[in-house]
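Example for tutorial group B:
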């Protein structure tokens, strides 16, 4: 699901061809226990001091989709994060703006001492539509 901000950034970059594009050059994956809204609100990322978003590299597009081209490995949890249900795509490692989000294919329960990992090719992302 694309946020309103990201859809507008894509339209700006494509149709207005501005010299300073609002599309970032690096994207970061985060996790959330709750479903965000299209305006980028209602996010519940882990509050563990070890949690941080992870930079992601994408495959070549095919049929309008990209996947994560390598494993995404989050830092080892110091405390339980709970059940993570959504992956988030941000334009910054800290703060920044939520660009898109989707449910994880399977909810991921993260206890203390766990190092969450999303295998290469597991996330399928498209900017073509919102479901």
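The residue assignment follows.
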């Amino acid at each position: 699901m694309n946020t309103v901000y990201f859809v507008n950034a894509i339209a700006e970059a494509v149709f207005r061809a501005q010299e300073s594009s609002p599309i970032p050059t690096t994207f970061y994956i985060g996790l959330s226990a709750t479903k965000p809204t299209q305006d980028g609100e209602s996010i519940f990322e882990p509050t563990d001091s070890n949690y941080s978003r992870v930079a992601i590299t994408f495959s070549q597009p095919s049929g309008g989709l990209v996947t994560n081209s390598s494993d995404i490995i989050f830092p080892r949890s110091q405390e339980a994060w709970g059940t993570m249900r959504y992956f988030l795509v941000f334009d910054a490692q800290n703060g920044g703006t939520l660009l898109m989000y989707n449910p994880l294919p399977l909810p991921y329960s993260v206890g203390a001492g766990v190092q969450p990992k999303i295998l290469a090719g597991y996330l399928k992302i498209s900017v073509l539509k919102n479901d």
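The mean pLDDT is 90. Compare this with the pattern of hydrophobic and polar residues in the output above.
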